[in-house]
Amino acid sequence: MGKDTKGFFRRKWFLRIISLILALFLFMYVNGSKSGFLRQNTRNNNQSSALMSNKSVTLRMPLDVTIDNNKYIVSGYPQYVKVKVTGPSALVTTTSNTQNFKVYADLSDLTPGKHRVKLKTSGLNSELTSKIEPQYINVNIQPRKTITMKVTIRLSTRDLDNGYKLGRPHSDIQTVQVTGSRDEVNKVNRIIAFVAIPHDAKDNIARQVTLQAIDRNGQTLNVVISPTTTNVSIPISAGSQSSSSSDSSSSSSDESEETKSSSRTSSRNDSSDSSSETSQSSSSISNEDSSSSSRNQ
């Protein structure tokens, strides 16, 4: 029986079946490993493609102007500009979050007057490209000028509805420094502190007021005033109508007191006269009784 068993395992068809099964298992194993490897490679390639793909974003950036601010004043340029940044997605995202670059206009070599200037960027990664909107700006360069001017207080009204009177206003700042372009500073006519007065005001007024530079036509000018505010105090006192009313009231009170006093005096005199008359009457009666008594005797 043992010989038959050994002969069974040695037969060619049995060995072929075993070889086929092992070959199938080996094929399935190798094929599965390749599929997993391909899936992993595909996933990595997709991630790499996502990181390396191009992306665009539009940023709102402040505009820097390069010029000697101690000598010149620049006007006419926008405070912010738009910048479209394009490049690898990771770099664009980082740049959008940090905004670690700047947009500027170099005016250092320009003379006073009006100019058209191209905007530039600096600090932007070399793998990124940018497009600025607008690409050019118009600027007006003027020599810087500073003058000293006196502060003038302007009140919204001089008369109050309740008979009270406004006193002389006082400002804690008498003069200020006015700085700007030469053309604009030359137009300054006055530095005013405007105070709105309520028509029914009765108490002293104290206000902090922003100073304004105006021209001969009363138009506000674009200059820098230093300091920018002043404290204004305005005394308020009772007017002549209020005083007259008070005097009239006092006079009426005095007349009333005099009338009361006169009435009291008159009453006392009447009482005295009445007492005198009563006394005289009693004396007369007494005398008559006395005479009658004598005759009877």
UniProtKB/TrEMBL annotation:
Gene3D superfamilies listed in its UniProt record: 2.170.120.30, YbbR-like domain
Transmembrane feature ranges: none
Domain of life of the source: Bacteria
Region (Disordered) residue spans: 234-297
Composition skew (Low complexity), residue ranges: 240-253, 262-297
InterPro entries: c-di-AMP_regulator, YbbR
Pfam family, one: YbbR
PANTHER family the UniProt entry points to: CDAA REGULATORY PROTEIN CDAR
Record-given protein name: YbbR family protein
Organism of this sequence: Limosilactobacillus reuteri
